[in-house]
Specification:
The complex is a heterodimer of chains A (121) and B (107). Chain A is mainly β. Chain A has no helices and 11 strands. Chain B is 0% helix and 50% strand. In chain B, strands 2, 4, 5, 6, 9, 10 and 11 form a 7-stranded mixed β-sheet that branches. Classes of the chains: A mainly beta (121), B mainly beta (107).
Chain lengths: 121, 107
Amino acid sequence: QVQLVESGGGVVQPGRSLRLSCAASGFTFSIYGMHWVRQAPGKGLEWVTTISYDGIHKDYADSVKGRFTISRDNSMNTLYLQMNSLRAEDTAVYYCAKKRNGTYLEPADYWGQGILVTVSS
Amino acid sequence: DIQMTQSPSSLSASVGDRVTITCRASQTISRYLNWYQQKPGKAPKLLIYAASTLQSGVPSRFSGSGSGTDFTLTISSLQPEDFATYYCHQSYSTPLTFGGGTKVEIK
């Protein structure tokens, strides 16, 4: 069965960096694009970034553009989110999610359990 | 950016009720509209994609309709496990955007 397991979250000071990882299993990771979506405490869902199956195509929300970088290692079945210059407003649960099929802007059909990132001094 | 507006933001309903949630896009998105269900402390679950296609394993009491800018999610007979928050989501263009959510509560 499809499993997505996020790691790397925690408490970080404003301006610092953090890297999230998402270990994928139960499907052929190298043929599916992936998303990161976040949810601030008590708020709705916010798309953060997406990457194509081969890592070539990427898109970002304006709120994170220039600060966050999505990447993947298909040999390790792992998705990453490098978060730099973190702000208080980046505090959220971060979900990695698998796209439903090979189309670039497909919705996510499987999600990880989420990992909390808290940006606070 | 495409804004997604859901209504209502919350509703109270009883088991067995028919429930309809609407979602309006700020510009046409063809049928690139998806619906998610989220329960507290859990990840979202894909219910419907491409406006009206039921995701595998989702009960048939859920249905979606619409195209262009106006969409609806209908639960034909609300069950206890359906009390949750529902989000619409457009996958027509980046930035991908979600509606603000509709919380379905027990009356």
